[in-house]
Every structure is written in structure tokens, then in C-alpha cells.
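ok trying again, last paste got cut off:
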Amino acid sequence: MTSVFALSSLWLTAQSEKLAVFIACNCDRNYIRQEISYVDHVRDQALADVQIQINQLGSGNGGRTYDLNFIGRKMVKGLDKTLTYQTSPTMTRDEIRAGLTQKIGIGLLHYLLETDKADHIKVVSSGRTAARQQKQMTEDQWKSWIFEVYGKGSFDKESSRGKTDIGFGFEGDKVTEEWRIRADVHFNHYENRYESDEGETLVTRERAFARGSIVRSLGNHWSAGIFSGFEHNTYRNLDLSFHFQPALEYNLFPYREVMRREITFAYKLGAIHNRYLSPTIYNRMKEQLFRHSLDVQIRFRQPWGDVFTTLEASSYLHDLSKNRLELDSYTSVRVFKGLSVRLSLNLQLVRDQLNLPSGDATLEDLLLRQRQIATDFEASGSIGLSYTFGSAFNNIVNTRL
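nice, full thing came through this time. structure:
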């Protein structure tokens, strides 16, 4: 039996070459197994001749950039390769998975040529030239700008209660090698009505903000930027808040390695002007504040697993005791064949709630979350284990009932 897969300007036909392949990705694996049937798709990386680690990040055109790392093992050990696949924001899910599968096939050809079945490969022209495709990719009348307008509305109605949630917004981004420019405008109105023997209770929350940032690359490790914006938030007792913050970031690794690993240190220093809806616990209706923060991010995407940890410390300059420390971490590690451990943790030590309204919170405030409540900390976490065993070779896709 033969299998067929497409290159950008070629069709390649290969007789079944049963390389053992393990693919780690956030993608449609069933589709990939079905289309690339000339290899054995194994469930554990220890059994693979070729391990494919696929990482993805948002790209400048509003789509995604996929980094495909092919790692040779056993009979092709030491034969490693990296490919890149880019999508556009107008592509459908089917187009994305088809293009990604095609790119995987191109990478696997690199290994098929090293086997004793290389003589069974046949190349046939598809009629589309690579030059024509390259021209379509390089033409850009929008000069790297991407815009998005969105809106949503939902409701939930019963005889004694009703809920309405409406939101809309606008986003604009320009991403080049030297610059990253962002603009974001959003409005949300939430309304909840309750009817009882005592009458009707109406709960409303509104949030609106406009934010913008300009970030300039300063080489392989440094970048600098300016962040600014306005916010109105009834839940946080903010009638209007304005902030302006310059920032500086250093990446321990070159930015070109961001798909696989990064350790960044970002420092922000700026001014905040708040005008409140009601007097705060410090009896302020408005105030001018200066705040700074240090953010450390660690991210590794490796064959042994994923690690993402961010630690942010911040404080107000007029009183360093008004501070906040936040840790957010996710880890997934393969311990040995078939066994993986997953950990997540979010911890916040809160000492900077200057915006809290004065007065005691009512039971209604607590239950209906009408306003922010004072707290010293917030914590959440999870731990999980998974162990897979059984048949390692099964390429059949069956979606029947």
C-alpha cells in the first residue's frame, strides 16, 4: 500500500516505511495519524525513532507560528531538524491542520531518506510553483498591521431571575523584527436581576478600558517599551484610572530561541492616577500614585515536558509596605515511560488594595460579587498523575458511535 503527501510544489509518494514516530503538540493528532499512515505513531517517546516536538506562539500577522523540532533516535540518532510553519488569521482549522500535517511530512522525508526504503520514493510535479506562493506571502498592503473588531452578547432567563452580558471591543497590532505596537479597546456590561417576595434586586457591573504599548527591540537580549491606558471598573471602585509606565526587559537567552526556552526579567516604573466611585478605606476620592514592578518569566518547552513560571513583585513608591507578590506556575514532566506529572500553582500575597471602598461589605456584596473585597492572599493549585500502558502501535482512527 502507498501513501501520498504534498510539498509546496511537489507531490511525494512513499511506500510504507514504518518509522516509529511520537508527536507532542496541541493539535489534531487523529488527523495527522490518518494522513501520515506510512509511519507507526507510538504513544510514548521512548519507543520512537523520531520524536516531534511542536510549539506554537502568536505571530505578527495575527496567525500562529509553529516550531517543529524533529529529534532522531535509535537508528537515526543524532539526525535532528527544525522546521517552521506559519498560519494567517483568515485560515480555517482544516487549512491549518492540513498545512501542519504537510510540514510534518516534509520533515519526516529527511528520515525516510536515511532508511533502506529510500529507493521507493517517487517525486511528481503538482503544477504550482514555489515562487508564486512566495510572492503571495511577501505582498502586504497592510504594512504588518492586524485589526480585529469583536462583539458578544449572552442572556439567561428564568421566571424569577435573568442575566445579560454584553461586550465589544477593538484590537490593533503591528509586529516586525524591530517593533511591537498594540492597541486594545474593550467595553463590557453585566446585569443580573433577581425577583423575590421582598422585591427585585438588580446587580450591575461595568468595565471599559483602552490600552496601548510600543516596544522596541534592542538586540538579541534587550527590549524597551512604553505602556499606557485608561480604565473604568465598577467592581474595583474605579471611576477612571490612567497609567503610564516605561519598561525594560532582558532575556537570558536570545529571542530567536523563544519557542523552546526563555528566562526574562522585566522592570516597569510609572505613574497612576485614580479617581474613585466612592471614598476608599483611606478616605480618598482621587490620588496620584507611583508604582514599580519586577516580573520574572521562565518558560521551557522541551521533549521531557513543559515548564511555565512567572513571578511578579510590585509596590507603590510612597509606601513600600503597599505591595503584592504573585506566583503563577504550570509544570508537566515526563518521569519515565508512560508516567507524567502535572502541577499548577497560583499564589498571591496582597497588600496593595488602595482602591477598596470604605464601609463594611454586605452579604449581598459577598454573594453577588458587586465589589472587590479585602484579602491578604489568594491561592489555588492542582496536582495530577497520568500513566498510559498497553499497545504502543495503533494508527487506526475510528470515530464511530
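cool. The chain is about 10% helix and 55% strand. Helices lie at 29-35, 93-112, 130-138, 363-368.
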